[in-house]
Amino acid sequence: MSGVGQGNAGVAAPPAAWVASTREPGLLAAFWGRLRARPSAVVGLVVVGALMLMAALADVVAPYDPTATDWGNVRGAPSLAHPFGGDEVGRDVLSRIVYGARASLGAGLVSVLLAVSLGLPIGLVAGYAGGLVDGAIMRLTDALLAIPFLILAIALAAFLGPSLTNAMLAIGLSATSTFVRLTRAQVQAVAAEEFVEAARSVGNPPWRIALVHILPNIVPAILVQATLTIAAAIIAEASLSFLGLGQQPPEPSWGAMLNVAKNFMDQAPWMAIWPGLSIFVAVLAFNLLGDGLRDALDPRQRT
Amino acid sequence: MTGSTTRPPLLDVSDLAVSFDTEGGAVHAVNGVSYTLAEGETLGIVGESGSGKSVHVLAMLGLIPRPPGRVTRGKVWFGGRDLLALPERDLRRVRGGEIGFVFQDPMSSLNPGMSVAAQIVEPLRIHLGLDQRAARARARDLLDLVRIPNTKGRLDQYPHEFSGGQRQRVMIAIGLACRPKLLIADEATTALDVTVQAEIVALVQELRREIGMAIIWITHDLGVVAGISDTVQVMYAGRILERGPVDALFRDPRNAYTLGLLRSLPDLSRGRAGRKRLQQIDGAPPDMRTPPPGDPFAPRNAYATPRCRAEMPPLSQAPGAAPGHLVAAWYDLPALLTREAAQQGHTP
Amino acid sequence: QTLRFGLMEDSDALDPTLARTFASRMIFAALCDKLVDIGPDLKPVPQLATHWELSSDEKALTMHLRPGVTFHDGEPLDAAAAKYSIERHLKMPGSQRRGEIAPIDTVEVVDPLTFTIKLKQPFAPLLAQFTDRAGMMVSPKAAERLGDKFSTSPVCAGPYRFVERVPQDRIVVERFPAYWNKDQIQIQRIEFRPIPDSTVRLTNLRAGQLDLLERLAPTDVPQVSRDAKLKLGTTYELGFQEILFNTGREGSPVADARVRAAFDLAIDRNALNQVVFNGEFLPGNQWVSPKHPNYVKEYPLPKRDVAKAKALLAEAGQPKPQITLTVYANSEAPQVGQVIQAMTKEAGFDVRIQATDFTTALDAADKGNYEAYLYSWSGRPDPDGNTFSFLSCKAPLNYARYCSTEAEAALQAERGSVDAGTRQAAWKRLADRVLTDRPGIYLLHRKLLWAYGPKLTGFVPYPDGLVRFTGLKLN
Amino acid sequence: MLRFLAQRLTLAVPTLVLASMIIFALQQLLPGDTATALSGEERDPEVIAFIRQKYHLDQPLPVRYAYWAGGVLKGDLGESIRLQKPVSELVIEKLPVTLELACLAMLVALALGVPMGILSAVKRGTFADTLANGIALWGLSVPNFWLGILMILLFSVHLGWLPASGYVPPSESLVDNLKAMAMPAFVLGNAIAAVMMRHTRAAMLGVLGSDYVRTARAKGVAPLRLILRHALPNAAIPIITLGALEFGQLLSGAVLTEQIFSVPGFGKLMVDAVFNRDFATVQGVVICTAATYIALNLAADLLSAAVNPKLRRA
Amino acid sequence: MKAAPAYPVISVRNLSKSYPLRSWWGGKADVFRAVEDVSFEIRPGETLGLVGESGSGKSTIGRAVTMLNPPTSGTIAFEGIDLARLSPQALCRTRARIQTVFQDPYAALNPRMSAGAYVAEAFRLHRPDMARSERREAVASLFARVGLDPHFLGRYPHQFSGGQRQRICIARAIALKPSFIVADEPIAALDVSIQAQVVNLLQDLQDDLGLSYLFISHDLRMVRYLCHRVAVLWRGRIVELAESDRLYEDPRHPYTRRLLAAVPLPDPAAERARLAARETTNPAPGRPGDLVEVGPGHWVAADPLPEETDR
Ligand SMILES: Nc1ncnc2c1ncn2[C@@H]1O[C@H](COP(=O)(O)OP(=O)(O)OP(=O)(O)O)[C@@H](O)[C@H]1O
Ligand SMILES: Nc1ncnc2c1ncn2[C@@H]1O[C@H](COP(=O)(O)OP(=O)(O)OP(=O)(O)O)[C@@H](O)[C@H]1O
Ligand SMILES: [Mg+2]
Ligand SMILES: [Mg+2]
C-alpha cells in the first residue's frame, strides 16, 4: 500500500561498511567541544594549565634560585631586579611563587585525588549496598570526622616523618569523610531513579550498576566539592607547614609564604599579596574549570 | 476566524515563533503559529510529539526557560493586551488567575516539598486575595470537585502520598482554582486510567458550561479530542497543518498528516482475529535546527508534490470543506484519496 | 582599674612548686613574693627576707623574714611557713624545684622570723634560686588543704591575690589589701591574657584591648616606635639562643668537634641578627651576654671565616657534611634556621631544617634523636643556671651529651664558692673547654621587648623578663 | 518519635567507641608523651618518672584505654594533667563558647552563601553570577589568619567599632558578647560561605529547571516566594548535609580563628592539649565533638525530612 | 498466530506484595497490601494484557515477575524455574531472558549513556566473548530492527523523541533474544502515530521471535488490539481474566464494565453521544473475592468481600 500509512516497520538494515565509516564524534572530542564552548571553562583551563606549566618549568621560568638568600634584599621592596620583592631572609618572592606552585598545586591536587579516590568508592559502596555495610561505614566515617585534623596530621608526620607528601596524605585523609558522606547521599538519590532499575533488569551486577550507571550521575556534586577542597587543601598545607609538617623550609609553598608574611604585614605587604593572589587565582581557575567540566560531562547541557 | 461571532476573540495568537539556543544551533520549536479562540470555546490540539504543542502555550505565558528559550516573534492578544509585551508583574496576574494551567507530568509538576493544600491555596491567595482560612476551605471544595475522596484528611498530605491519577486531579484543581477564563490543559489525562479520565473530562465539561471557560486541550488521545473539542488543530514541526470544527476534521481530513494520525488507530470492528496491522507513519520528524524550506511533513508524505518540498503552504480555507476548516497543503487530499481508491479497485 | 597584660603563652599550673613555664613566672610575679628579688642590675635585693647571712663554710644560710607579712588567706608568713614552703619544693612529688635547690639538706626554724638553711655542700647559686619560684612562699594551710590542687586557687604572699582563671582565656588577680608593700601597688586588678601570635598581640594593644604586652617581635619594633601612643620597654635577656649539637651521635658529622667549629665559623652572627631580628638582639658567643659581668672577655665574638671553615671541614675529611637542624615551629626559629642554612651552605654544609612542635623537639632532644637543635634558654640570674644543667656530665638538660672532666671541675668550682674572683676564674676555665669543644654554639641574646599603651607609667624592664608590679600606674 | 531518637542514639555508641579508640591509638603515634611535655625546662628525671606512674603512662595501651573507658563509664572524663582540672569541667566551660561561635559562623555562612548561591543560580551566566562566584571563592582562598588580622586592623584599630579580642559570656552582656563574636564568626563563616554558595548554586540550578517551579510560575507566584518557598526547600538537602559537616568541623577546627580573636573555645583547648600531650583532654574533647557531631547529623536528618516529605517514609 | 504450546513461559502463583507503611520518623506502622493473591500464566508467543485503575498494582506485578522488586509471597516460575530459588548470579543470567520496557522512556534511560552504549550493554554483560566490531554490528542491526537510524548510536537520550527513546528501550530489551518481555505502559507517553510504530514493532518481534509479553496499559483499545488474553486488576486483585474478544464483548465484572464504558471513541459524534449517555456506576465497596470460571478460560471474581482496610 502506498500513501501515508506504511506497513513496514523500520529502515532496512544498513550495509556493514556504514558501521565503520559513520561514527558520531568520539566521546572525548565531543567533550572537548562542549568544554571549549564555555569561555569561563576555557579561562579556567588556560590558567590551570599555565600554573601547571609554570610549576613544571619552574627551573626555566624562575629568575632566581628560590632558596638563594641575599642579605641585601631582606624584605626588599619590589624592584626591577626583584619585581615581586624579597622575603624575610632576602629570597626572591617571584621565584618562590613560581616554585611554590609545585607544593601548593601538588597539595591541592594530590590530597583531593586521595580524598576522592578513597571517599568515592567507599561512599558508593555505603550508598548502594545499604544495610549493615552502610551502617558500619557510616559509623567509622562519623568517628573519623570527629578526629581533629591536626592530630591526624601530627600523628602521620610522626609516623612517616614530616614532609610535603605526608601533609598531602593527612589533608587528603581528613577530607575523605566528607566525600564519603556526599557520595553516599548522592548515590542514594540516584539509586532511586528508574534507569537504575532498568539497568538491573538487563542483569547488571551491582558493582557495574554502581560504577557505570550511578557514578557518572553523581559527578557534578563531587566535582563541586573537589574544586572546593582544592582550595581548602592549599590553605591547610599552610597551617601544616607552619607546624613543620608540610613543605620543609627553605622550599617554598604559597601557603607557607603567606603564613610567614603575616608577621611583616606592615613592613613588607608584598610578601603577602603575591602568594595570596596566587592562591586566589588558582582556586578560581580550578572552580571555573570544575564548572566547565561538570557542564561538559553532562550530555543534557546544551547551552 | 472560527464561527461567526462578532465579539472579539478571547485569545488571538498571531505568528508566534519560539526557538531554543543549543550547541548545534537554534532549534526552531515553534515556527509562526496563528489562531484565535472564542470565549467558551474548546480547542483540541493534537500532533506529533515534539511538534511544539507544549512550547507554544508555555511561550504565551512567558514560561519557557530563558535561556535557552526565546520568543522570536509574534503577538498573543488576551483580554485586549499583548501577553508577550506585558511586564512580568502584570503577566503574573494573568497566570493562574485568568489563565489556568494543567501540566503534562503530574509526577514532577507538583512540588514534592509542599503539602497539597499549600499548593492549591496559593493561586487563591494570590489572585483572589482570600485569607488562609477561606482559601483552605476553597481548596477542600476544589478537591471534592475533582473527586478526590476523603478530602479532609488529604489536604495536608504531600504529593508523593497521592497516586498518579490523584496527583493529576490535584493539578487540575490548581488550574481551576481561580475559575479562569481560559484553561490550558497539557496532556492532563495522559497518565490516568480511562475511568478517571472520563470523570475528569466530564468535570471539565461541566465547569466549562458553568463558568463559560474556554479550554485549550492538548492530548494524544483522539478519543478525548473527539469528545471534548469544538475545534481541533493539528500541529507538526512547530506549525499548524490543519484546523477545523471537530466533526469536519475527523470526517474529512485535508492534510496527509492528520489522515495518518487517524489511520494509525487500531480498528476493532472486526475483533482481534480479524485485525489488520496498524498503519504507521514512517520516518522521523525533521531536525528543527534546520527546518526544511517547504512543508515539514513532505519528506514522510507519499502525496507530497515538488512544490511541497520547496515552499511552505499557507494555512487557508480548504476548498469544498466546512467553513472554518483550514489546511496547509498544496495537494488536494480528497481528490488524491479517491484516485488511489479507484486504482486499487474499491472505494475508501 | 584593670591592667590587661598580653602574654605569649598560657600558663601551666599556678603552683610555684609544680610550675615550669615562663608564662607562669609572669603571673607569680603578681601572686607570689619571693624571699629575695633581683634588681635591674642583677643584684639580690630583699623582698620577704629583709636580710640574710651565709656561714663561713658557706654551708648554712640564715634568713630573717619581714615582720607582719600575711598570706592572702590571712595566715602569717613566719619561719615555720617558710620551712614548710621550702620543704614542699624539695619533697612534693612532681616538684619542679627540687633540682634547683637540691643541695639543701635541712631547714631549721630559729625563731618566728628566722630560719636557717643547711646545705650538703656549698652552693653559690642558692640565693639566685630564691629570687625565682624556689623562693616563693605558699600558705601552709592552703597547701595542706588543696594538696596537688593548690594551683586551682593559689595562696601566696604577693601583691595580688588570685581571682579566677579561664584556661586559655585569662587569669585575673586583684590587689591584696593587706600586702606588706601595699602603698606601692596602685593597680586594682590585672588580667593576664594569653595571645600567642605576636602580630595579634600587637594589634590588640593598638586596638586598646591590652595595656601591656610582653615579647614583642623585634621586627615590629619600628612599628611601635612610629606609633606615638605606644611605648617600648627593652632590656637584654639573661638567657641565650644556641645551636646544640648531639656530640654523642654516632656516624653524624656533628660528633666531630672540627665540624662543629667549622659550623661556628660559617655563621655571621651580626648578619643573622640584622636579617631576622632587625638588629635588635645582641650577638653572643657565651652563656651570658657580652654585657654581663661574668662574660669571659678572653673570648670575644668570633668573626665569620668561610675559608677557615672549609679548611676545617677538609681536615675532618667531611667537605660536605649533611646536618639536620631541628627548630621549634614558631615564627622566628625557622627563619633563624633558614639564615643559618644559607650561611653554612657557603662553607659546604648541607643543612636540613626540621620544624617541629615543642614537645616533639624536646622528645628528640631527650632521646638523643637529633643532630643539631636550635635551642633557647630564658636564663637565670646566676650564670650557673645557664651552664650547670647543660654542661655537667649527668645533668638533665645535657642534650649535647657533653662530658669533659675539665668542664666538670670548673662547674663544681663555680658552684662551690660565693667568692667573685674564684668564680670568675672558674668561668674562664669553663670557657676554655666549652668554647673549644663546642657542644653548642651560642648565637644571640634576645632583647626583651615590652610594648605598652599610653596609660601605663612606672614600667621598669627587668632582665629576667618578669614585670614588677610595684610602682606601676594606670592613668 | 522517642523510640526513633533512642534508636538513633544507640547508633551513636559504636561511633563514640570507635572515635575514642582511634584517637587513643593516634596519640600513641605522637612523639613524646605527657611526661616529656610536662617536665619543663628543668627536666628532672624523677618528675618524669612520677608523672608516668601517676597517669599510668607506663602501662600498655589497652590497659590505659581500659582505665580511661572505665572512668568515662563512671562519668569521669579524667583530668587535664596540664591544667590540673577535670576534663569535664573544661568541656563544660568551653563547649558553650564553641557552640555559640559555630552557630554564629554557620549563620554567617548561610546568610552569605545561600543568597549568593541563589542569586548566581537565578542569574546563571551573567555578570552577577561571576561576581558572586568570585566573592565566594575569594572568601575561600583567604586564610583565616589573614582575614582575621585585617579585620582587627580595620574594625578595632582604625574604626574602633569592635573589640579585637576578649570573650564576654552572653550572660554578662549579650551586646558585648555579640560584639566580641562578630569578627570571629564572620571570619569562620566567610570560608564556609563559599562551600554553601557553591552547593546552593548547584542544587538551585537543578531545582529551578524543574517542572514544579514552572507550575508555580504558572500560578502567578512572585519571584521571591518562588525562590524561597518553592525552590529553596527542594534544594536544601545538600545544604543541610554539608552544613552539618562543616558545623562539625567548626567544633574543633576553629583553632586559628580562636587564637587570633582569643576566643576560649574547643579548638584552642584541643591544640594546646595536643601539643602538651594532654591525652585526657584530647580524648574528652574528641568524645564531645563526636557526640555533638552525631547530634548534628541527627538534626540534619530531621531537617531534611522536614524539607523533603518523601524522606519521611524511608 | 502461532499455536501456543502447552507449558507456560511464566507462571505466577498466589503472588502478593505488600509495602511497609512507615511513619515519617521511620518506625514501621503497618503494611499496605498492593497486590494480593494474584495468579496467572503466559504461554510462549502469547500476550497477556493487564489493565486496571491506576494504583491497582499493575506495575507492582510487572516488577515482581522480573524479580526487580521481589514479591512478599507467592512463586514466580520462569520456564519452570522458580526465580526465588536462583542465586544472584544465576538471576543476573536469567534476566537476559526476561526483559522490561518501562513506561517513561526518559526516566528509564541513563542520561549519561549514549544510546549505542546503552544497547551494547546487554551484550557486554551476557556475551563477554563478543568482539568489539561484532558488538557494534549487532547494535547497529538492532537499531535497524527497531527502526532507528544507526547514525543515532552516539546520541544521548535527551536528543531523542519519546518514540525514539522507547525504541531504544525495546532494542535493548530484545538484544539478548529474551523469551518474555514485561511492557509497562510502553506507549502511554507517545503520540498516536508513534504508538502505532511501537505496537507494530512489538507485534513484529513477537511474530519473528516468538516472544511473550505482559502488556500493561491504560489504552484499552490497544490492549484489545494487541493482547491474546486480558486480565483486569482492581484493588490489588484480578477481577476478570479472559480471551480478549470475549472480555470486551462479554464483560462480567462490574468494574470491567465500568472500565470499558469509559473508553473514549475517536469519532466526535459517537463520543459525544457516549459522554451524554454516561452512567456513573460506583464500584461496590470492599475487596474482590476469589475467581470463578464462568466460561472456557473466562474467570471472574466473586462478589466483593467486605472492606478490610480503608484504601
Ligand atoms: N529546553 C529546551 N531546550 C532545547 N529544546 C527544547 C527545549 N524545550 C523544548 N525543546 C524543543 O522544542 C520542541 C517542541 O517541544 P514541545 O515540548 O512543545 O513538544 P510537544 O508537542 O509538547 O511534544 P509532546 O507531545 O511530546 O509533549 C521539541 O523539539 C523540543 O526538543
Ligand atoms: N515503593 C512503594 N512503597 C509503598 N507503596 C508503594 C510503593 N510502590 C507502589 N506503592 C503503592 O502500591 C500501589 C500499587 O502501585 P503500582 O505502581 O503497582 O500501581 P499501578 O497499577 O502501576 O498504577 P499506575 O497505573 O498509576 O501506574 C499504589 O497504591 C502505590 O501507592
Ligand atoms: Mg508536550
Ligand atoms: Mg504503573
From TrEMBL, chain A:
<dbReference type="InterPro" id="IPR000515">
    <property type="entry name" value="MetI-like"/>
</dbReference>
<dbReference type="InterPro" id="IPR050366">
    <property type="entry name" value="BP-dependent_transpt_permease"/>
</dbReference>
<feature type="transmembrane region" description="Helical">
    <location>
        <begin position="41"/>
        <end position="62"/>
    </location>
</feature>
<feature type="transmembrane region" description="Helical">
    <location>
        <begin position="143"/>
        <end position="161"/>
    </location>
</feature>
<protein>
    <submittedName>
        <fullName>ABC transporter permease</fullName>
    </submittedName>
</protein>
<keyword id="KW-1003">Cell membrane</keyword>
<feature type="transmembrane region" description="Helical">
    <location>
        <begin position="214"/>
        <end position="236"/>
    </location>
</feature>
<keyword id="KW-0472">Membrane</keyword>
<feature type="domain" description="ABC transmembrane type-1">
    <location>
        <begin position="101"/>
        <end position="290"/>
    </location>
</feature>
<feature type="transmembrane region" description="Helical">
    <location>
        <begin position="105"/>
        <end position="131"/>
    </location>
</feature>
<comment type="similarity">
    <text>Belongs to the binding-protein-dependent transport system permease family.</text>
</comment>
<keyword id="KW-0813">Transport</keyword>
Automatic annotation (TrEMBL), chain B:
<keyword id="KW-0067">ATP-binding</keyword>
<dbReference type="InterPro" id="IPR003593">
    <property type="entry name" value="AAA+_ATPase"/>
</dbReference>
<keyword id="KW-0547">Nucleotide-binding</keyword>
<dbReference type="GO" id="GO:0005524">
    <property type="term" value="F:ATP binding"/>
</dbReference>
<comment type="similarity">
    <text>Belongs to the ABC transporter superfamily.</text>
</comment>
<dbReference type="Pfam" id="PF08352">
    <property type="entry name" value="oligo_HPY"/>
</dbReference>
<dbReference type="InterPro" id="IPR013563">
    <property type="entry name" value="Oligopep_ABC_C"/>
</dbReference>
<dbReference type="InterPro" id="IPR050388">
    <property type="entry name" value="ABC_Ni/Peptide_Import"/>
</dbReference>
<dbReference type="Pfam" id="PF00005">
    <property type="entry name" value="ABC_tran"/>
</dbReference>
<dbReference type="InterPro" id="IPR017871">
    <property type="entry name" value="ABC_transporter-like_CS"/>
</dbReference>
<keyword id="KW-0813">Transport</keyword>
<feature type="region of interest" description="Disordered">
    <location>
        <begin position="277"/>
        <end position="302"/>
    </location>
</feature>
From TrEMBL, chain D:
<dbReference type="GO" id="GO:0005886">
    <property type="term" value="C:plasma membrane"/>
</dbReference>
<dbReference type="InterPro" id="IPR035906">
    <property type="entry name" value="MetI-like_sf"/>
</dbReference>
<dbReference type="InterPro" id="IPR000515">
    <property type="entry name" value="MetI-like"/>
</dbReference>
<keyword id="KW-0472">Membrane</keyword>
<protein>
    <submittedName>
        <fullName>ABC transporter permease</fullName>
    </submittedName>
</protein>
<keyword id="KW-0812">Transmembrane</keyword>
<keyword id="KW-0813">Transport</keyword>
<keyword id="KW-1003">Cell membrane</keyword>
<dbReference type="Pfam" id="PF19300">
    <property type="entry name" value="BPD_transp_1_N"/>
</dbReference>
<dbReference type="GO" id="GO:0071916">
    <property type="term" value="F:dipeptide transmembrane transporter activity"/>
</dbReference>
<feature type="transmembrane region" description="Helical">
    <location>
        <begin position="181"/>
        <end position="197"/>
    </location>
</feature>
<feature type="domain" description="ABC transmembrane type-1">
    <location>
        <begin position="95"/>
        <end position="304"/>
    </location>
</feature>
Automatic annotation (TrEMBL), chain E:
<comment type="similarity">
    <text>Belongs to the ABC transporter superfamily.</text>
</comment>
<dbReference type="InterPro" id="IPR003439">
    <property type="entry name" value="ABC_transporter-like_ATP-bd"/>
</dbReference>
<dbReference type="InterPro" id="IPR050319">
    <property type="entry name" value="ABC_transp_ATP-bind"/>
</dbReference>
<dbReference type="GO" id="GO:0055085">
    <property type="term" value="P:transmembrane transport"/>
</dbReference>
<feature type="region of interest" description="Disordered">
    <location>
        <begin position="272"/>
        <end position="311"/>
    </location>
</feature>
<keyword id="KW-0813">Transport</keyword>
<dbReference type="InterPro" id="IPR017871">
    <property type="entry name" value="ABC_transporter-like_CS"/>
</dbReference>
<dbReference type="GO" id="GO:0005524">
    <property type="term" value="F:ATP binding"/>
</dbReference>
<keyword id="KW-0547">Nucleotide-binding</keyword>
<dbReference type="InterPro" id="IPR027417">
    <property type="entry name" value="P-loop_NTPase"/>
</dbReference>
<dbReference type="GO" id="GO:0016887">
    <property type="term" value="F:ATP hydrolysis activity"/>
</dbReference>
<protein>
    <submittedName>
        <fullName>ABC transporter ATP-binding protein</fullName>
    </submittedName>
</protein>
